[in-house]
Structures are given as C-alpha cells and as structure tokens.
Amino acid sequence: MTDLSKSGAAVGEPTAASPAPSAFLEVRDLKVHFPTDDGLVKSVDGLSFQLEKGKTLGIVGESGSGKSVTSLGIMGLHTAGQYGKRKAQISGEIWLDGTELLSADPDHVRKLRGRQMAMIFQDPLSALHPYYTIGQQIVEAYRIHHDVDKKTAKRRAVEMLDRVGIPQPDKRVDNYPHEFSGGMRQRAMIAMSLVNNPELLIADEPTTALDVTVQAQILDLIRDLQKEFGSAVIVITHDLGVVAELADDLLVMYGGRCVERGPAEKVFYEPRHPYTWGLLGSMPRLDRDQQERLIPVKGSPPSLINIPSGCAFNPRCPYADLPKDNVTRTVRPELAEVGSRHWAACHLGKEQRERIWTEEIAPKL
Amino acid sequence: MLAYLIRRLFAAVVMLVVIVMVVFGIFFLIPKWAGVDIALSFVGKQADPAAVEGVREKLGLGDPIYAQVWEFFKGIFAGRTYTGGGDSIQCAAPCFGYSFRSEQAVWPVLTDRFPVTLALALGAAVLWLILGVSAGVLSALKRGSLWDRGAMVIALSGVSLPIYFTGMVALSIFVYGLDLFDGQFVPLDESFSGWFGGMILPWITLAFLYAAMYARITRATMLEILGEDYIRTARAKGLKERTVIGKHAMRSTMTPLLTMLGMDLGALIGGAILTETAFNLPGLGQAVLNAIKNQDLPIILGVTLITSLAVLVANLVVDILYAVIDPRVRLT
Amino acid sequence: MTTQRTSGRRKQAIAAAAAVAALLTTAACGGGSDDGDNGSKTGAAGFDAANNKVAQADLAKKGGTLKFGAAQDADSWDTTRGYYGMMWNFARYYSRQLVTNKAEPGAAGAEVTPDLATETAKVTDDGKTYTYTLRDGVTWEDGKPITSKDVKYGIERVWAQDVLSGGPTYLKDVLDPKGEYKGPYKDTSADKLGLKAIETPDDKTIVFKLPVANSDFEEMLALVSASPVRQDMDTKSKYGLKPFSSGPYKFASYSPGKDLKLVRNTEWKQASDPIRKAYPDEITIQFFSDANQLDQRLLSGDLDLDLNQTGMSPQGRTTALKQHKGNLDNPVSGYVRYAVFPQSVAPFDNIECRKAVILGADHVSLQTARGGPVAGGDIGTNMLPPSVPGAEGQKYDPYKLATDNKGGNIAEAKAALKACGKPNGFSTTIAVRNNKPVEVATAQSLQASLKKIGVTVEIDQYDGSQTAGIIGSPSNVKKKGYGIIIMGWGPDFPSVQGFGLPLWSSKYISESGNNNYALIKDKAIDGLFDQYVTTLDDAGKTKIATEINHKVMEGAYYLPFVFERFINWRSDNLANVYTTDGYSGQYDFVNLGLKNPKK
Fold first, then answer.
1. What's this protein's family per the entry (chain B) (predicted)?
2. pLDDT, tens digit (0-9, with 9 covering 90-100), for B167-189
3. Which of C259, C465, C434, C69 is nearest to B292 (CA)?
4. Same structural domain for residues B308 and B277?
C-alpha cells in the first residue's frame, strides 16, 4: 500500500479529477449518508483504503461503526432496490480494477456483482432463500454470469460444494438451506460466492453466527480459497481474533471513520490508537482467565447523527484530557503516519502513546 | 405425504359428520326444546292434522334424532325413500335430503346451483389476484408515492364498502345508466357471451372487495420480504431487479396470499350470499337465502354441508400447496 | 364467509342503504318520464288507472312474453296445495275450474261465473245439492277431454292432506265434515273415486251432495283447489313442479326459486273458455332474493309486474311515487291489519280493559307505522275488509277510531280502565312476528300510546316462521302472557265466512294452528255463522255478514289498524290491466296483455 497519507484528509477534494489508481481496489473518501426523519445518519464519513489482489484486508469495529455499510457500498447495494425510501447519499470514489463504480452505469455494476466481486453474509440461514435448494441458488448465481445450461451449472455447483468441504455434494446439492447445519450453510454460502471466481471477496462477519470450532474451519477455508483463487479479500468483523491470522492489513473503524490502519502485525503489536487498545483488551485470548482477559471499552458507540465534535472517540477515551487546550473535543484528528505504512488518528503525542501502550496497556493484555 | 392426505381426509369426514349432527341439532332439537312443532312449518295456513302427521311420517320426525342422522347418512350413499300418506318419493344416491317445501331432492338443487357459485368465485378470484397483487406489489415498490397512497385509499374503501352497496352502484352505472350490460344471469350452456356479460359485473364487484384486501396484504408482505437478507443476497449475486422481485420476493409473498385465497374461496363457494343477492345470480347463496325465507330445512342443511365441505377442501388444498411452496413445511 | 366479513358494520350499512335509496331515485330513472297522474307519452296509464277499472283494454295485442318478477315463489303450483293469493290468481293460466271469479274489475271480479261448467250451479234440496254440466270442447294439454271424473279426482286430492299439505280445506270440511273419506291415495275403490259426496253420473255431469248446506259452497268451488286433475297425470307431491294443464298455458320449465316459464297450450280452445283472453304467447317469472333488485327491474322496464302483488319495497315505492306515478295503482288489498286480545290472558278477559286499549291507542300513529294512508291503508274502524259483501268500510266506526278518537282518547280509555277495575293501568306483553318490520313498528307505536293511559307493554318478537306453533297454540299464549297479538288477515274468498269463520267461530279454536286468537266463544256469533251457511240469497247473506262484524266489534276483541292498501307497479307495456276483489286487489293476471309484444 502506498500513498495513504492524504487519504484521510481528502474531504472536499474534487473526486472526478482523480486519476485511476494502480491498486486493484481503491476506495477514496467514501461517504455514505442516510437521510432519516431524525437527521442525516453519517454511517461512513470519509473512508479511504487500497487493496491488492491476493491480499486480505480486515475491517474491524463495533457494530454501527460503518464497516458493513462500507462493504455494501462497494457492492453497490445501497442504490439497488431502494424502493420509495429516501435514497442513500454516496460520494467519493470506488475504483475496482480500473473502473470507478459510483459513477458507472448501475447495470454495469450489477454485472460485476457476483462475478468480479462477491459477498459472504453474516447469517447464512436468513441470507439463503428458504424456498429454493442450495443447488438452485448456486446454479442461479452461476448462470447469471455464464451462458451455460442448467446441467453444466449444476455440475459446477456440485464441484463448488465439494471444494468448500461439503460431504456428498451431489446429494446435498438438492437440499434446502434448513436441512443444512450452520457451518455447512456457511460453506454453501461461500461456494455460492465463489462460483464465478470473483476477484474481490467481501466476507461480512462470516463466522459470527457460528460456534467456535466451526468458526476456525470457515476461516481456514476462506484462507485456503484465497490462496487458490488469488482473490482480494475483505473480512469485516467486530472481533479482532477473527482477522488476527487471516489479514495482511487491518483497518479499525470508529464512528464511520478510520482511526487506525496498518499491517496486521503492527496494529496488533504496536497499536497507536486508544480505541484499538480497547478492542485488543476486549479480545478473548486462550491463555487468559475469563475474568481478566476482557477489558471492554467503556460507554456506547457514538450516534451517527450527532457524531461528537473533535475526536469522535473522546467521550469514551480515558486519555481525552491529556492533550492541551481541550483539543480532543474541538479538532477532529487526521490520520497521521506513526510508523512504516502505519497510520492513526489521535491527538495524543507519539511518545505519549508509545509510553501508555508499553507501560499501561500491553502488560495487562 | 399420502399418509398425511389420508389422515386429513379422514379428519375432514369426521368434521363433516360433526357438522351434520350440529346442524341437525340446531334445526330439529332446539325447536323441540322450545316446544315448537317443526312439522307445522312444513304445512300451510290451515294446519290440517292429517297434513302435520303426513309430514312427520315422511320426514321421520317421530324418530329419535340419532336415527334421523343415521338415515341422512345412509341416504347419501344408498339413496332414500320417503313414504307417507300413500305416496312414496325416491331420492337417489347421493341423497342429501329432500325438500318438502319445493318438492325436489336437495342434491340436484346443489349441483344445479354450485357451478354458478363456483364460476362467480373463481372468476372473481382470478380478477382480484391480478388486480390486488399487482397493485400491492406496485404500491410496495413505490412506497410513499402518490400511486401508493391513491391505491391504498381505494383499497381501504374497497374493504370497507359492503358488497350490496358496490353492487348497487355498479348496476346503477353499468346496467341502468350506461346500459353496457344486460345485468341478467344467463346459463353458460345457453350462450357464452350472455353468461360472460351477466357475470362480468358480479366478478368485478366481488373482485373489488377482495382485490382491495389482497392489495393491502401483498403490499405489507412485500415490504417485509424486501427487507429480508436473502433478497440482498439475490441482488449481491448480480440478479436483475426484475428477477429479484418477480422470483425471489414474489415466491415468499405468495405464502400468506395463498392461505387467504384458500379460505376466501372456500367461504365464497359456500355461498356468496350478498353478491348473489345483489345480482340475482342463481347460486348456492341465493338458494340458501330462499330456503331460510321459506323455512326449507333440508336445503339449508344441504347447503351448509356443501359449504363446510368446500371450506374443508379449500383448507386441504391450501395445506398441500403450502408444502409445495415452502419446503420447510413437511406434510407429516 | 362473506356475510361474516361484512357483519358488524351496521353504521356503514345504514349509510349505504341511504345511498342506495338515493341511487334508486337518480340513476335508475334516467329517461325523463315526468308522467303525472293522467298517463304519459311513455304509455303509463296513470295513477290508479287500473284500480277497480280496466286500463288500456283495447291496446292489448296477441303475442309476446309477459314478464313477472317475484321476491317470493309460490308455496306450491299444485292447485290443491297453493294457498298464496297470487298463486290462485296465477294458477288460472294453467288450470280451469267449474266456476271461477269474473274477469272484471273491482267488486264484480269477486262474483262467480261459469268456467268449465256451462252455467252456475243448479242448487236444489235446500242448498244441499249442486249440479253442473261441463262445456263441450274443454280439453287437457294432450287434447283429451276434461271429464266430470277429472274434476272429482282433482277435488278428492284435497283429502290427501298428509301428502298434499298446504292448501285450503274448505271443500273437505263442507263435503265430508266427519272425515270419513281418506283421500284418493288411500282409496280402495278401483277408480279411486270413492268420495260419496260427489257423483259423476256421466262424463259431463257432476253433482255435489252436501251433508250440511253452505251458502258459500260455490265460492269454494271457485278456488283453484277445485281444479280438475287427471289421475294418470297425478304425480302426487311432485305435481306442483309440472301441473298438467287444463288452461290456455302449460308449464315449459320451472326451477323453484329461480324461474318459471309457461307457453301456450295449443290444445286449449278460445271458444271453450269465456274467461281467459290469453293474449301473450309466453309467460315468465323470474325470482329474486332481494326485493330491491326486483323493484329496480320493474322501474327499468325489464319486467312487467310483481307476481307477489304485495306492494313495492319502501325504497322502490319512494322512487316510483316521485317519478313514475302513472305506473302505479293503490288498491285496497282485502287485508285488515289489527291487534287481537286473547281472553285467556288477564285482564283481557274483561271487555272494559279491551276497550281501554282500543280507545287509548293512537290510530294515526299506527297507520303511519303501517306506511301511511297510501302505502299502509285507511285507518281500520272495524274487522270486515271493504271487499267483502256486507262490509261498511269506515262508515261503521263504533269506537270513532277514524274520527274523534283517531289520536287516542285518553279520558275515555281511563274511564274504561276504571270500569275494568284497573284505574292505574296494568302491564302486558305484545307478541309480534320478528320478520315483519312493519308489524314491529306498529307494536312500538302501540307501546308508546298505551303508556299514556298507564298500560305498560313489553314487546316480544317471536320467530315469525313459527307463527302456528307460537301464537297458534292457546296454551302457549296463556303461558307467555301474550295479552296483545299483532296480526293481519285476508279473505280466502270474499265472504264473511271466507274471512271470519276461522277467526271468530268457537268451533275453530284448536290447540295448534289456531286462528281464533281472541278465543271468541260467542253463541250469537256462532249462531249467525250457522244461519249464514243456510241463507241462500245474497241480500240475506250480506245482512248477516254485517251483523257478525258488529258483534265482533261490540265484543272489543280486536283493535283494527288499517284496511290495507298497496302500491303496485304496472309496466308501460301492460294492457287490459285491472285490479279485482276476487284476488284481494291484485291485478287479474289471466287477462293481462302487452301493447308491444316485441318488446
């Protein structure tokens, strides 16, 4: 990843003038706002990142931090099927393999969906149509983008089910979603997502609805498939543990913005944002006792209609009073480089943060 | 599936037996307790004792109630002979009773009138499904728009207005006012165009009432379904919106509609009394109304049975279709 | 069911009913026919133009289809079994009798004239023997001649009440008062003609031998229950579905409650029938389950007249009176509507208490409840309908109900109460049929006016279809304490016997199906009836009828409400229309014709 230094500050820049990027996926200053009766919900408010093929990006944050909205934004699912509701306002740029999606013909984006970019959803039971067999749903996904007969498509479906580790795929292909176990359903979902060899795979909380042992299997599966297909993968999760081994890069979101971004090992071992510390503290670790290991972030996520001024995290931040002149409550911190390819948006001084991390936080983890 | 069907059919038969006994009870036992001689309601102004006795003998009113019920059931399968006063009346199987008021067996009356009611119900159902469902889907897709509000106001009025009112309005406008239709029932075997011309207004009027209900249900269900995760999945696959709505969303929307349709058709076949009255259609509803007016108990009993049967069959069909549509429902 | 879906919407229903009424007055009558009382360009003869006189007699042409509509099917089309007035009227299309009512308007229509017989009866043996000779050329619908044996067999069917229930039994009561004959179906004689009271010496002659004279016997023979029936065509209880015709028309098709169609009986010869003109080629009846629908069809000209002849429904009537008055007649129906006081229920055993109720009632309010002077009728002042010989109409008004006391006379009523020993009034129950809204309205009117004299009244609406079992049972009436019963009565044939015998004769009190609700056991009245049946001259009969009426009124058993009137519709296309007392003010169906047969 390169040239990310300005991305957090790209507000107001004329996007149309931006040149096509070299990265496979580049998101520039993405904003997704929803008008409601109570006010404008700023679910995503200026998000930028890049992703290369073969790499995995983990997007981490609490629910309501804007991570799912981001993924749906990339897929173009905020504009498709918005009947009668007030339309989502989307701005910024999403470049996928040289094409800007937000300004592209919606039908063109539709054709990319499922083919070039695919998505795995959180709850496979509700994400699969209850009235169609697994086979029918995979066949449909394949035949939208491939002009083949049903027989061929079904062979492909069986092959994919086999690939994702479903036993007796030629029989299970005719089963309905409710006849599958949770883990098998998610495998089927993955098979359906990958049936068209997408170059970008977005997994939105792929393991949240599953129990722990199955979680690991699914994560392994995603990693193996990525290696095999060489796709770019975005894994969206509220659980740092999920992406710990999977992700090359991590992006921590808070209140619709990126608060820290960098290579996974940096974010894990040298986090430079108090919110990331909080996430790490609330991450379950097998070598700790139940009581000790969970240090939750106090307070609740910010309202996306009235995002706190200054640093959005300030009401929950234990160190909010350390910077002088009350700056945390008046000035919004921009992403600043804190290490090699490692950025964080925080008013605390660099040394201050290093000290707090090494002296106060790390020992407790 | 077969075992399920057999069980359901058995339950339906038991149900019918219970219904017959209840109806028998209402018609024959309650007047008895109230001290009213029902034989008197079969004779005229000058209640000649011989006439009363003749009726009592022919109808078997002197027999205990269970014997009467048994005779009734036996008649359905084996036919029945009513004897009394030197006259005997054959009522061939399936004998659903004999009307001494109009001197005819009940079964031919039912078979004569059933097709009219069936045609009324089915024709109207086709219309209201087309109108109601498409209006409901459009309303859901254009939620909050002028179209949506307009359609829902019309739907509300359709649901609220009694059929004899809309029927009267339709007749006043199209038959007496514009003279577009004759407004008279013509049997199908006489003339198709005449039959169609006579049925079109009842269909529209009845369909208006139901289309309104179906539009509202369709709209509400469609809105709910559109929020489902699997609809988002369908879009994420790259499906065209038309397919998303027409295939994925519609399939789910059909389930509650089907349940309603089954019930409504069952009830309508049982007797669209108001519609048949408003348009003077010689269907079951009119038959039962006349029968009530004339105290023609056997006809009332026969129509009640057919009504119950229609509702039971409709429910059975709904259950089976339900299983066909929704694989999660197992017919066991 | 749809009925359930629309139930519980009373308010809407009322609003809708109002709207329907509005629609009827506007949409139904688009064509500007501002016909007044004196006819119009459209062809309506004018208001009351056919009431007791013939309207447009010479405009009737042969051919066409005469279209009846009806909200109520006949009780039976079997001549033996029918009891509805409209059925007797209509049955003349397909049946003939020895004698029948004259085809003339008004009172003349109630007179008897020869039909199958060459002339009216030769009465001998002090009124106990009646002899008729049949005309030449009278035939059945298959061309065979009608014989005296056919007439006898037809009359014998009246005895088979256990099979052929429903019709009037006067003939049986008069010819076989002891009930010795068991009816043709149980007749052991080979020709099934075992009834001794009727002799058929040859095919043309028929002789009736009455055990006891009855001066109204010929009136009874004019009932359709005296029609001939041919034994080989007698389908017993099913005969009403397709009676074998002796008249100018025969059954083509009949579906009970749906429709009926008569076509010409080609074997019938005009020359053999002095009564029936038989103008139309076909006669149809369409049955409706909703009276409003029927009225719409009448107003729109699709139908010619109402078979039931019981008046239009309130909505249709309102429209018709406003916009098509020239199509209406307002005949007296022959019915008296009244309240009757069972003497078994105290204090109505006391004549003064009965008088108190008669005097205290508000007769104008009762008339209004019946529908007012036009649709309801004139205030009833006595119990004999104006169409019955011997009736005096409002001229006989012993309680001044139509004059001084028409609004109720509280002072006199209270005086009567005092004389009855109930100076502070009493409480009682009114029994009223729940299926007759107008009767319920009169009960409420009566309740309101009686309150003013201290008589508290509770209204019991009973199942109207069970009249015979509920108020026809004197013990039940006594048990329930029905001090006042609301009813109506019309003559079966226009005589004091045909009207009043079941109501006033002590011999007619019975435990079930009783019609002498007041339980009148007056030797004077019984004696007058006995005297009546042996009095053969009309003047004498009329005098007795008047006397009986006076006796009944003096006994204060009844509070008459109205001498009923109807509003009946006749289409523009009807010709030769007239009402007849022979059928209680109905149009004489059998001679109706069409002006334009092609319409």
1. Belongs to the binding-protein-dependent transport system permease family.
2. 777 777 777 777 667 667 888 88
3. C465
4. yes
CB C104 within 8 A of CB C110: no
Q: Which of residues 217-246 of C touch B (CB under 8 A)?
A: 236-238, 240-241
Question: Residue B1: inside a domain, yes or no?
Answer: no
What is the domain extent for residue B242? 110-331
**B198 with B252, same domain?**
yes
Q: Tokens 């069409």 map to which residue?
A: C594
Per CB-CB distance under 8 Å, the chain B contacts of A130 are 230, 252, 326-328
On whether any CB of chain C is under 8 Å from the CB of B70, the answer is no
Segment A153-194, tens digit of pLDDT: 999 999 999 988 899 999 999 999 999 998 899 889 999 998
CA C422/CA C424 separation, integer angstroms: 5
Task: Check A176 against B328: CB less than 8 A apart.
Answer: yes
C458, two tokens: 């509770």
User: Are B26 and B83 members of one domain?
Assistant: yes
Distance spanning both ends of chain B, measured CA to CA: 6
Distance CA C578, CA B305 (A): 46
Residue B161 lies in a domain: yes
B4 within a domain of the structure (yes/no): no
Residues B260, B155 share a domain: yes
Residue among C94, C97, C90, C92 at smallest CA distance from C75: C90
pLDDT tens by residue, B112-139: 888 899 999 999 999 999 999 999 998 8
Look at chain A and count its residues: 365
pLDDT band of A296, cuts 50, 70, 90? low
Nearest alpha-carbon partner for A164 in A217, A122, A101: A217
pLDDT surpasses 50 at C551: yes
Same domain, B91 and B129: no
Q: Report if residue B207 sits inside a domain.
A: yes
Q: How many distinct structural domains can be found in chain B?
A: 2
Q: Are residues C385 and C391 in contact, defined by beta-carbon separation less than 8 angstroms?
A: yes
**A135 φ, ψ to 5°?**
-60, -45
Q: Do C16 and B164 touch (CB under 8 A)?
A: yes
Average pLDDT, chain C: 89
ipTM (interface pTM): 0.84
Quick: pLDDT tens for A313-326.
988 888 888 888 88
Do C440 and C432 form a contact (C-beta atoms < 8 A)? yes
> Which of B42, B66, B95 is the C-terminal boundary of a domain?
B95
A36 pLDDT exceeds 70?
A: yes
Look at residue A235 and tell me whether its pLDDT is greater than 80.
yes
Which residue has tokens 């897709």? B141
CATH number of the domain at B210, please: 1.10.3720.10
Q: Rounded distance, CA A348 to CA A339, Å?
A: 15
| B298 and B193 in a common domain | yes
Q: Of A140-149, B34-43, C528-537, where does mean pLDDT reach its minimum?
A: B34-43
pLDDT at residue A290 greater than cutoff 70: no
Judged by 3 or more CB pairs under 8 A, whether C touches B is: yes
Q: Is the dihedral of CA C64, C70, C73, C77 positive or negative?
A: negative
Task: List strands edge to edge, sheet with A39-51.
Answer: A39-51, A25-36, A89-96, A99-100
> Tokens 């003013």 map to which residue?
C452
Q: Are residues B250 and B301 in the same domain?
A: yes
β-strands A249-254, C122-124 pairing: unpaired
Say yes or no: B159 and B80 in one domain.
no
Q: What is the pLDDT of residue A158?
A: 95
CA-based nearest distance C494→chain B, Å: 17
Note the pLDDT tens digit of each residue in A82-129: 665 667 889 999 999 888 999 999 899 999 999 999 999 888 889 999
Domain's final residue, options B95, B118, B145: B95
What does the pLDDT look like over B271-294, one tens digit per residue? 678 888 888 888 888 888 888 887
Q: Is B276 on the interface with C (CB under 8 A)?
A: yes
Return the C-alpha torsion angle C525, C531, C536, C538, nearest 10: -30
